[in-house]
Amino acid sequence: MHVIAFNGSPHEKGNTYAALRAVTEQLEAAGITAEIVQVGHLPIRGCAACNQCARNKDSRCVLPEDGVNTAIEKIRAADGVLLGAPTYYGDVPGPMKSFLDRVFFAGDYNCGGAFRYKVGAAVAVARRPGGRTTLDCLQRYLNCAEMFLPSTTNWPLVYGLKPGDVERDTEGQVYLRALGKNMAWLLQAVALGRAQIPVEPREKRVYLNLIR
To answer: What Gene3D superfamilies does this protein's entry cite (predicted)?
Structure first.
């Protein structure tokens, strides 16, 4: 089994990377391979709302390649997805938000639920306030893709400013390790379930505007 993790920080080996590693180390200990891909430094533009991905239904964004389509391919090939981001003004940084909008819209939402029933998890880093909002934002993408989210003993949120600070957040490290262990267990449980339980067809979407 394999998990693909995305680092939404512009810093390749900063606190967000350390938080992701705390989780992936537990996955690797359970025999699950993991890859961390940094995307927070990429100049990723937002969704153009052209809906061409909905017409093509090929799990690809038609905008010039900037890492989004490569990420979609990696997610489709993986068994689990791990998202990580720092907190900017109480939320996810702009490039990571644009990345997730396009990856999940073109790769899953407009392609019949290609990410459905994978295992997804998220971690957030904050200097002090706002981390809960960041974590909630990341988890919404996973929920809307009908992924299975492992729980932990508290919110998988760690605190720090300078590189290495989150490793001294001993309480937060407990939550990250628990998340990694629970994600590993859930990945194995889902794999067993797929082999024995038929997957129900995805519910057909119904679009109802609140204002007509």
So the answer is: 3.40.50.360
Tokens of 153: 């003993």
What's the DSSP call for residue 204?
P
Query: What's the alpha-carbon Rg for the chain, to the nearest Å?
Result: 17
CA distance 61 to 64: 8
185 and 121 Cβ atoms separated by less than 8 Å: no
Angstrom CA distances, 122 to 114, 125, 180, stand at 19, 10, 10
Q: How far apart are CA 206 and CA 203, in angstroms?
A: 9
53 phi and psi, to 5 degrees? -65, -30
Averaged over 25-36, what is the pLDDT? 98
pTM, two decimals, is 0.96
- The CA angle 14-79-36, to the nearest 5 degrees, is 15
Task: Please tell me the predicted confidence (pLDDT) of residue 200.
Answer: 87
Give tens-digit pLDDT for 55-84.
999 999 999 999 999 999 999 999 999 999
